[in-house]
Amino acid sequence: MSDSGNPVVLVHGLTDTGNKMRYVSDRLRAAGRKTYSIDLQPGTGEAPLELLAKQLAGFINRHLGETATLDLVGFSMGGLVTRYYMQRLGGIDRVEHYVTLAAPHRGTIAAYFTGRAGCVQMRPNSEFLRDLQSDVTMLAKVKFTSIWTAWDTIILPAQSSCLPVGKDIQLPVLAHPLMVVDYRSLDAIAQGLGIDPQH
């Protein structure tokens, strides 16, 4: 497996900050990758996901320029923010490897517990998700991997993380937050980014 060497942008989930991705960053840096972790504002679900995706686009342009190739990792809500960037803001033309972790690609019933704008968009069959699903096959243009666990109690049903494109990896990780710290997740992320397993 060849390592692309691309810089990797890491996108956290709901109510988190970029620090949530520190174990992922450490794993990738140990393999020689340069990583960038964004702090989405606000990351509490109050903002529409389109707004957060525009923040991500600006962050990438500021740190990597407007043309450099990159790899992208999104955790939970960050999986939808990155998808909007990929599918609606031109990211599909810049990203080589794209990995999501426990992302509610087809929604989560847990999002019904709040009326915050971004959370409403994460409900199953929301207008936001229907829009992204309408041309989800475009993700076949990149090396896409979705990593998830059947033990997830935040992404309900857990299989919501599965999409009809790319590679699907199910891991026996015991809880949603552990997806960004468990060694099996970290190894699967590295694999999804084309990193040699010996690194």
Strand neighbour order, sheet with most strands: 2-1-3-4-5-6
Number of helices: 6
Average pLDDT, all residues: 96
Q: Strand share of the residues? A: 15-25%
Largest sheet: 6 strands, parallel
Q: How far do the termini sit from each other?
A: 11 Å
Q: Helix amount, in percent?
A: 25-40%
Q: Cα-atom Rg, whole angstroms?
A: 15 Å
Poorly predicted sequence stretches spanning 5 or more consecutive residues: none
CATH homology-level superfamily = Alpha/Beta hydrolase fold, catalytic domain
Instruction: Give me the CATH architecture, please.
Output: 3-Layer(aba) Sandwich
Helix/strand structural class: alpha/beta
Which geometry do the CA atoms define? Answer: globular
The count of DSSP E runs of length 2 or more, i.e. the number of strands, is 6
The run of helices and strands is EHEHEHEHHEEH
- Name of the level-1 CATH class: Alpha Beta
